[in-house]
Design goal:
The protein is an alpha/beta fold. The chain folds into two domains: 177 residues, 3-Layer(aba) Sandwich (Rossmann fold); 143 residues, N-(1-d-carboxylethyl)-l-norvaline Dehydrogenase, domain 2. It starts with 5 loop residues before the first strand and ends in a 10-residue tail after the last helix.
Length: 337
């Protein structure tokens, strides 16, 4: 297949829109499928998306609300719906994905119930031809900064090096640098689990603690994510790269992090229901915490930060008590998987 020029982004949130901007800047014809008609109208009439307020978008980006029409002729299909909606949305998209198209997953999460990664979900719902040219994209990348052209580095992973290299060529610009990887499992899990650690980092900040505490959470959170990843077949080295440590640092410390913001408000004593009710975008870490804990139990991996975050979110545990429980665990050597 020659380099795709007809690209469809399935999901019109901030991240999907930012990726559409990157593709448009490469000269591609870009359609964004929008669940909400008002978002499609805003894209087409004003070059704006309310999920990226104040960012002017390239005229090459077109909004569409009909999946069949959006996918007609698409040579690149980017799946970027919130993780818990990927199965439903891409299941509807499946009959309309054309043979030979590349499918790229950019959602970060673990499906509740099935405990499947996004690549596994797509394998179940998409036809075989759609998965022959499959890859995932992840890494430290706030949507607003990508959309406004701030230098960013990410990673594309595929089990086929040629597919990863082709995706690299599609996305790489002077401000969006793309590395390749073959560890789909590690890139997927690292992108999902960093959101749980970011919730914890925000919670400790909300409690009034500073950089020492955040650094400890990042480091030990990385250890937990690596343990789980290795247990399910990922490459340990992936967790030290852009999809792992890079995204973890960004999400735990950056002011644009939705998950950190949710954690901060939890630490301040606000109830989860009120916090989520105030949000227009999805904080993936809230649901991923549940799925990650279940997956860890299934493969018998210890994840104390995830356990305490679950207790805060779903069992009413006071954040200060959860932090105390982490700090008073039995002393042990620092070991890495």
């Amino acid at each position: 297949m020659s380099e795709p020029t007809r690209c469809t982004v399935v999901g019109a949130g901030a991240w999907g829109t930012a990726l559409a901007v990157v593709l448009a800047e490469k000269g591609h014809d870009v359609t964004v499928w929008c669940f909400e008609p008002e978002v499609s109208k805003s894209l087409n009439e004003g070059g704006l998306n309310p999920y990226l307020e104040g960012v002017s978008l390239p005229r090459a980006i077109r909004g569409e609300t009909d999946l069949k029409s959006a996918l007609r002729g698409a040579q690149l299909v980017v799946s970027v719906s919130p993780a818990q909606f990927v199965r439903g949305v891409m299941g509807r998209a499946a009959p309309h994905i054309e043979a030979g198209a590349m499918v790229l997953s950019a959602s970060k999460g673990i499906e509740l119930g099935s405990l499947l990664r996004m690549d596994e979900v797509l394998f179940e719902v998409l036809p075989g031809h759609a998965m022959r040219n499959f890859c995932v994209l992840s890494g430290p990348s706030f949507a607003r900064e990508v959309a406004t052209g701030q230098p960013t580095a990410v990673v594309v992973a595929s089990r086929q090096r040629s597919v990863a290299a082709r995706a690299q060529g599609l996305f790489q610009t002077p401000t969006f640098r793309v590395y390749t990887n073959t560890d789909v499992i590690g890139v997927e899990l690292a992108g999902a689990l960093k959101n749980v650690v970011a919730l914890a980092a925000g919670t400790t900040a909300g409690l009034g603690f500073g950089h020492n505490t955040t650094a400890a959470l990042i480091t030990r959170g990385l250890a937990e994510a690596t343990r789980l990843g290795v247990a399910v077949g990922a490459d340990k080295a992936t967790f030290y790269g852009l999809a792992g440590l890079g995204d973890l640092v960004l999400t735990c410390t950056g002011s644009l992090s939705r998950n950190r913001a949710v954690g901060y408000r939890l630490g301040q004593g606000e109830p989860l229901e009120r916090i989520l009710g105030d949000m227009t975008a999805v904080a993936e870490g809230v649901e991923t915490t549940r799925a990650a804990l279940e997956l860890a139990k299934r493969v018998e991996v210890e994840m104390p930060i995830v356990e305490q975050m679950y207790a805060i979110l779903y069992e009413g545990r006071a954040p200060a008590d959860a932090l105390r429980a982490l700090m008073t665990r039995d002393p042990k050597p620092e070991e890495w998987s």
